[in-house]
């Protein structure tokens, strides 16, 4: 009798487990809505990756030098786009984010304003960079050119203001300048406004010549509070929209048409009318002149570590990445 009761108990237990499993399997997966995530990017090229988010009230664009204040506190967004090295340092200093993706792979150029009489960059020429001394343009500059031009360097807050310097040939305080370090697409628009301006150097080519590596530029960081499913859905959508833009640049122009004229320049840091033309151009390495692309960060960890080593930053750990 005891043996029979034991068998019945086991059968009931198995039935209960099977029923529970069936109930669990029948529960639909939670719907992921990545559009609810708050996003902040700097003005300039990273905006192009979010051309289909312009009317999303959760998406904000700020001056490049305003990003540093957003890593912590109540205003820190779910998604923050910034140059790779700045993001790595922010996390090292306690920012609760992980690296999700790389979305630009080099769109820096050095242009002449037309003021330099000998067309050769010398230590006494005035040279404009954008951002501040802790950001990628300055770090790249010193990696490529060293400290020989330090007394000549002037800093504008963002690519938009640097573009104004190239277009006018003057720094924001009225000082005449000879060269401007700038990113596309701001470069294209500024050169159209200054008939004497011309390209002086392709920074991607100089970087690859010296390092043997491809440039890694704007990176997407996702806040630790974002769950894995939502974060990956966001990254997948971003990858698809970037691929569509590269295949058909007119999609970007359509997306950015939300704003026009001076308002568009203020919102994006560039004139959106130039975007399609810039996409049709290639840099010295044969890539689109915007440098726009997509790679999930964990998939190119070795490339990222190699890039960071150029700036004396240690290799990243697996925990550094959003998976």
Can you describe what's shown?
- The chain has 323 residues and is α/β, with parallel strands linked by helices.
- It has helices at 2-26, 84-92, 136-145, 159-168, 186-193, 203-211, 228-247, 250-256, 261-268, 275-279, 301-310, and strands spanning 39-42, 59-62, 79-83, 97-104, 108-112, 127-130, 153-156, 179-183, 198-202, 218-223, 292-296.
- A six-stranded mixed β-sheet has the order 2-1-3-10-4-11. A five-stranded mixed β-sheet has the order 7-6-8-5-9.
- Helix 3 (136-145) links the parallel strand 6 and strand 7.
- The relative contact order is 0.18.
What is the strand and helix layout of this fold?
Layout: H1 2-26, E1 39-42, E2 59-62, E3 79-83, H2 84-92, E4 97-104, E5 108-112, E6 127-130, H3 136-145, E7 153-156, H4 159-168, E8 179-183, H5 186-193, E9 198-202, H6 203-211, E10 218-223, H7 228-247, H8 250-256, H9 261-268, H10 275-279, E11 292-296, H11 301-310
Parallel strand pairs: 1-2, 1-3, 6-7, 6-8
Antiparallel strand pairs: 3-10, 4-10, 4-11, 5-8, 5-9
Secondary-structure element order, N to C: HEEEHEEEHEHEHEHEHHHHEH
Class from helix and strand fractions: alpha/beta
Number of strands: 11
> What is the oligomeric state here?
single chain
The strand line-up of the biggest sheet is: 2-1-3-10-4-11
Tell me, briefly, the overall form: globular
Low-confidence region ranges: 1-5, 7-15, 22-29
Number of helical regions: 11
User: What's the pLDDT, averaged over the residues?
Assistant: 88
Radius of gyration: 24 Å
- The end-to-end span amounts to 55 Å
Largest sheet: 6 strands, mixed
Share of residues in helices: 25-40%
Strand content: 15-25%
């Amino acid at each position: 009798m005891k043996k029979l009761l034991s068998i019945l108990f086991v059968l009931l237990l198995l039935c209960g487990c099977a029923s529970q499993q069936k109930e669990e399997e029948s529960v639909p997966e939670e719907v992921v809505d990545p559009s609810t995530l708050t996003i902040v990017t700097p003005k300039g090229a990273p905006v192009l990756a979010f051309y289909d988010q312009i009317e999303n009230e959760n998406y904000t664009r700020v001056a490049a030098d305003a990003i540093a204040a957003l890593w912590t506190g109540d205003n820190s967004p779910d998604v923050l786009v910034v140059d790779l090295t700045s993001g790595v340092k922010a996390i090292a200093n306690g920012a609760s984010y992980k690296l999700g993706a790389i979305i630009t792979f080099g769109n820096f150029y050095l242009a002449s304003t037309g003021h330099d009489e000998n067309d050769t960059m010398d230590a006494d020429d005035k040279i404009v960079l954008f951002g501040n001394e802790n950001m990628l343009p300055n770090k790249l500059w010193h990696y490529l050119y060293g400290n020989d031009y330090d007394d000549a360097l002037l800093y504008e807050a963002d690519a938009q203001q640097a573009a104004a310097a190239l277009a006018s040939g003057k720094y924001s305080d009225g000082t005449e300048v000879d060269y401007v370090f700038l990113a596309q697409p701001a470069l294209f628009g500024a050169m159209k406004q200054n008939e004497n301006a011309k390209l002086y150097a392709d920074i991607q080519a100089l970087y690859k010549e010296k390092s043997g590596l491809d440039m890694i530029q704007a990176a997407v960081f996702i806040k630790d509070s974002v769950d894995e499913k939502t974060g990956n859905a966001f990254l997948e959508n971003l990858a698809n929209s970037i691929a569509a833009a590269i295949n058909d640049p007119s999609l970007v122009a359509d997306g950015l048409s939300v704003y026009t004229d001076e308002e568009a320049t203020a919102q994006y840091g560039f004139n959106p009318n130039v975007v399609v033309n810039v996409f049709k151009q290639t840099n010295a390495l044969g890539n689109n002149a915007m440098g726009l692309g997509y790679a999930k960060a964990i998939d190119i960890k070795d490339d990222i570590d190699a890039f960071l080593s150029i700036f004396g930053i240690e290799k990243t750990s697996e925990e550094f990445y959003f998976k």
